[in-house]
Amino acid sequence: MVQIKWTPLSIEDLKDIHDYISKDSKRYAKIQVIKLKSRTSILKKYPLSGKPVPEYNDERFRELIEGNYRIIYKIVNDNLVDILAVHHSARDLSRREIK
Description:
By secondary structure, the protein is an alpha+beta fold. It has 2 helices and 5 strands, in the order E-H-H-E-E-E-E. It has a single domain, classed as YaeB-like fold (2-Layer Sandwich). It has helices spanning 8-22, 26-39; strands at 3-6, 51-52, 61-66, 69-77, 80-88. The protein is globular, with a radius of gyration of 13 Å. The two termini are 24 Å apart.
């Protein structure tokens, strides 16, 4: 089974998402963060389940979609996946330094 590691940037993204949504609803902010975290559980058994990130020319960088968010991750090795960022799909990914 693959270990999933959330990077500091991805944790900060979750916090920012929570803070933004909680301006309208603390309940829905919490639900959204739970959905995003839960979506990554599939990677424990199927790390290749996400599609390659089109902006990168590297098969190790992949993404899962949850609602309006792209969960960007990197397959480090057979035993480890790093969650690099949680990015809103309406924003330009090329403007962020994720690697």
